[in-house]
Design goal:
The structure is a single chain. The N terminus is likely disordered. The longest helix has 26 residues. Helix content is 61%, strand content 10%. By secondary structure, it is mainly alpha-helical. The chain folds into two domains: 63 residues, Arc Repressor Mutant, subunit A, CATH 1.10.10.10; 64 residues. The protein is elongated and about 65 Å long. The strands form two sheets. It has a two-stranded antiparallel sheet. Strands 3-4 form a two-stranded antiparallel sheet. Strand 1 and strand 2 form a beta hairpin. The two termini are 27 Å apart. The protein contains five helices and four strands.
Length: 140
Amino acid sequence: MVDLGTKLEGTPLRIYAYLLRHGPAGPREVARVVGLRSPSLAYYHLRKLEEAGLVRRLPGGEYEAVTDSGIEGFVVVGKWLVPRLLAYAGFFAGMLAVEAYTLWLRITSGQSITPEFLALLFVTSLSLTLFLIEGIKFSK
């Protein structure tokens, strides 16, 4: 099993994400899909991922992603590898949706909007924006 702080980036990250989304694949398919020059280069990266505990080799020679592995900065959602910062952005997007609905209810019912509520909207919007921007930067 891999250490929960395993750092993964570049070609190995692309290979792991592909295996996670599309299931088992051999070195030839991985090389073709990820854009590597040769299957031997794909095999090299697959072996390194296997040593790190992120993939396992199947009897037929294909490799599959280990989904319960922890990768620094990412969380596995279904078959997708999502930057953790984008997951946080999703949380704040949900909070902002609830706050916007509450604002709409207050306005339509004629209730006053307090400065504290406006401050809450501002902080939630700012948090969402920052996590979204940083998450997009991190995913590139």
